[in-house]
Amino acid sequence: SDAQIIATLLMSLPPAYDSLIVALDSHAEKDNLDFVIGRLLNEETRQESEFSAAYPETSALTVRVCDKSRITCFKCRKQGHYQFECPE
């Protein structure tokens, strides 16, 4: 059931989410899976932005994944890869 999934999910979270767990426990929609997932995603975004603001030098070192579907290879002119990855 949703309540069991929510309980398992919340028990597996790291200590950084303790305040959110307490807040969710007292909320009327605490057994609504969509509501809990939405709150967790919001909390994750909030924590990431706080971390980036507190440690801007580490943000420069993070690897960003890009969508290669729009990338055009300069060697074969096909889309989906860079020149150094070209199979030709």
Automatic annotation (TrEMBL):
<dbReference type="InterPro" id="IPR036875">
    <property type="entry name" value="Znf_CCHC_sf"/>
</dbReference>
<keyword id="KW-0479">Metal-binding</keyword>
<dbReference type="GO" id="GO:0006397">
    <property type="term" value="P:mRNA processing"/>
</dbReference>
<dbReference type="Pfam" id="PF00098">
    <property type="entry name" value="zf-CCHC"/>
</dbReference>
<keyword id="KW-0863">Zinc-finger</keyword>
<dbReference type="InterPro" id="IPR001878">
    <property type="entry name" value="Znf_CCHC"/>
</dbReference>
<dbReference type="Pfam" id="PF14223">
    <property type="entry name" value="Retrotran_gag_2"/>
</dbReference>
<keyword id="KW-0862">Zinc</keyword>
<dbReference type="GO" id="GO:0003676">
    <property type="term" value="F:nucleic acid binding"/>
</dbReference>
<feature type="domain" description="CCHC-type">
    <location>
        <begin position="73"/>
        <end position="88"/>
    </location>
</feature>
<dbReference type="GO" id="GO:0008270">
    <property type="term" value="F:zinc ion binding"/>
</dbReference>
<keyword id="KW-0507">mRNA processing</keyword>
<protein>
    <recommendedName>
        <fullName>CCHC-type domain-containing protein</fullName>
    </recommendedName>
</protein>
